[in-house]
Amino acid sequence: MSVRVLTFLAIAAMAGCDGKFGAEGDSASIAIGDSGVNSDLDSDADTDADTDADADADNTDDDGDGWTENEDDCDDDDPDVNPGADEVCNSIDDNCDGRIDEDFPTSMWYEDYDEDGFGDPDVDEASCDQPEGYVANDLDCDDLDDDVYPGADEDTDDGEDSNCDGYDTSFEECSQDAVEAAMDDWVDGWTYSVSDYDCGTFLYGCLVEDQWMYVDVVDSEVSPTEDPLTFDVVISAQLDVVGYVETSGLIGENNCDMDASGIDVVYTGTLSLDIESDGEVDPNPNITGTLLDTPSMFVDFTDTPGGEGCDLEILDLLASFAGFDLTGFVDDAAAEAVDDLADDIEDEIEWQYEWGGHCPGE
Asked: What phi, psi does 288 have (nearest 5°)?
């Protein structure tokens, strides 16, 4: 028997005596099949490594739209955003092509910080859709003050251009005062001389002389336009026109006093202001009169004292059956008188600015 075999038998005999290796009292025995520390470390390490390596977040369709991040989904939390989506106007890259709202026409929008309906010209954004807090106009001259905007009430000389017209003056207010003064203090109740009017034809002679027009102003209004120095003017009035009519020829000799009363007329136009370098206001009114009634429907003809008599109304009635109008000249004469009055109104308005003291700088 070899020495190697004897040694093995000796070791086996010792193991059979106490069932364990090591010194007496040593409890650090190893059970058969127990992998110990090495088994724990291998199990944990393998499990962690496999889990981390196998779970690929970029290859997961989180929003269920059929596209993953690996497939170029640029927002996998929004099912409406993916490479196959249609681009819509919403300030989002819907189809993940790196562009936002392409092919949609854009407009410029302006921030309305003070929420007065007017935008700040210095804060803008181009977009196909209106951004929140933005408006389409850039007319606000102070977007931090909601009392300052185009159309706001202007307090003259308060140090604030409240209505954003570039001036610390209410030109609308002083222009209203100037027009009202021109109409109420000068035009209203005045008697205007009207030029003679030739109403004859090749069949008979006709002349309107000594015409006078009385004006009753009903209302006058000045309103702003987009131009802060231009205003719309509307003046309502009633006119009375009187005169003397003399005819001859085919319709005979007639000497008539003419009276057309209560004729409605409206004067409309614009009032533009030029501000000189010294602050003086230079007005430029442009007024046109329009008859709202037919004066010949309101006219009365009576005998002129000491004349040949007046049969115009009867003659006009008879002539109307033959298609003639003998008193239509009253409409033409009144129209000329209305035009003349428009010129006088313009003159009176200019006078009020120059001498009336209704606007600053005078």
From this structure: -130, 135
Q: How far apart are CA 297 and CA 287, in angstroms?
A: 26
DSSP category for residue 184: I
CATH of domain 171-356: 3.15.10
Tokens 């109304």 appear where?
313
- CATH 3.15.10 intervals, the chain: 171-356
What are the start-end ranges of the E strands in 137-229? 191-194, 197-198, 204-224
- The identity of residue 145, as a single letter, is D
Long-range contacts of 319-322 (CB under 8 A, 24+ apart): 319/251
The two tokens of residue 109 are: 């929008």
Q: Which residues contact 140 (CB under 8 A, 6 or more apart)?
A: 110, 112, 114, 116, 118, 119, 120, 121, 148, 149, 150, 164
- Return the minimum-mean-pLDDT range out of 23-32, 104-113, 204-213: 23-32
Distance CA 152, CA 140 (A): 11
Instruction: For residues 72-87, give the mean pLDDT.
Output: 91
Segment 294-332, tens digit of pLDDT = 988 888 999 999 888 999 888 888 778 767 788 888 888
The pTM assigned to this predicted structure is 0.56
Measured distance CA(162)–CA(146) in Å, rounded = 10
